[in-house]
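Limitations
The structure tokens in this dataset are predictions for the assembled complex, not deposited experimental models. Users should treat interface geometry with appropriate caution, especially where small molecules or nucleic acid strands are included. An illustrative entry is reproduced here so readers can see what is and is not provided.
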Amino acid sequence: MDSSQFVTPGFGLVFWTAITFIFLLLVLRKFAWKPILGAVSDREESIKSALESAEEAKKEMQNLQADNERILKEARAERDTLLKEARELKEGIISDAKEQAKVEGDKMIKQAQAAIESEKKAAVADIKAQVANLSVEIAEKVIKEELSDKKKQLKLVENMLGDIKLS
Amino acid sequence: MKLTNWQNLVIGFIVFLISLPSFALLQDHSQEESIVHEIEEKEEEFDAQSMIVHHVLDAHEFHIIDFNGHPISIPLPVILWTDNGLTTFMSSKFHHDDSGKTVVEENGRRFVKLHETIYQLNEGESAVAFDAEHHPTNATKPLDISITRNVFMMWVSVLVLMLIFTAAARRYKKSDNNVPTGIAGFIEPLVIFVRDEIGIPMIGEHKYKRYMPYLLTIFFFIWINNIFGLIPILNGANLSGNIAFTMTLAVFTFIITTFSGNKNYWKHIFWMPGVPVPMKIFLAPIEVIGMFVKPISLMIRLFANITAGHIIVLALMSLIFIFKSIAVAPVSIAFSLFIGVIEIIVTAIQAYIFTVLSALYFGMATEEEHH
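Predicted assembly:
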């Protein structure tokens, strides 16, 4: 057996391998590699674009969220100023009212004082009048009593005269 | 990448060099052996060497099994281009004879089959005569383009590949969103592997698409034939361990590399940029040799790896018959199982290496200047 056959390429096999390989290459290129690689790259493209659009949506979402945040902050600030204004207003009103009340109160007190004064005066005058009347009546009675006796009468006159002098 | 390339070259050559003496031994030994074989033919001495060689080399018939001393085989067509035009007949006409005894007369010419080579007897001769070295003296070799065992298995593999991949492609067409189902789910990772791990890194993002059909075809073609070579019932049709097969594929890679070489590639071969002029002159012949060594390394690497695997398994099995003891069988089986498992890995690795290196050469040929 000639073992150089091992390393001697036979023409027949070279011939058939070349033909078969070219045939296989052409057939598989048309019917297998193009559709398979096409489908794979199409899918990769679609996955890529889907990921990109997801990323975009995420960004948009973030923008929206930022917008919301901003609007919320503005609203909060506005609310704060409103509250502050309201508080100031309230305080103003209260202090005004207090002042007014004080003024009114003072006025009323003064009026009341004046009224009391005048009432007091009237009452004193009345009392004086009544006291005078009573004194007169008492005096009448006393005098009547006293005058029942001559001595007494004289004494009275004397006292009275003395009083007049004193007064 | 260049380093691994050279490493591969070196490894390829070492394998080649190591195998040379063993071939020589094989040759010397076989001649004595075959003479002895002829003398002692009646005694049915087991000849491991001829068995291995017979299994590893190509054959004109598809031998399946010997039953009761009678070989059972599928005859294959013999196609010859002779001085009298195309001649075809079935290999069964040789009646399993491989020693040149059976003479077939066809188309006015006489043929014999000797060690799986078909000889055409010279005019007027009716039997083949041998010289001292057992070479036929009165016959010539016609151009033999027979459908041999390897060609037959190659066509079977092509059929299987076409069925698998067109079925996978159809799956994509059927699905409306390109989702791989069924066989496409199995095929797609492999195709993507070739694209993402071989095509894109070796050739580059912009140019890899042109080479993808070639890379994919060569990858799966080599792989499936490596696998078919391992299936015992196919009688080790050792297509990818045949130097004719690996040479043809290597030549395709060489042709594509050469034709896609750009200005930059040729400049690197004939007028290496960035080195002094004497160096440029010195490097040019080396680079020209390198141009041819690259495909030669592809050819030898695949051939040697696959053939070596077959020889090891067959030799281990032969041990049983050499020792004529069934007690050796467990050892032989255990070892060939071990080698078989390695061989399964090697089928994929060798297909991968052939494809990667082809892609690397294409990448080198199309690389743009960037310094």
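Some entries come with short summary sentences. For this one: The helical segments of chain A are 11-146, 150-166.
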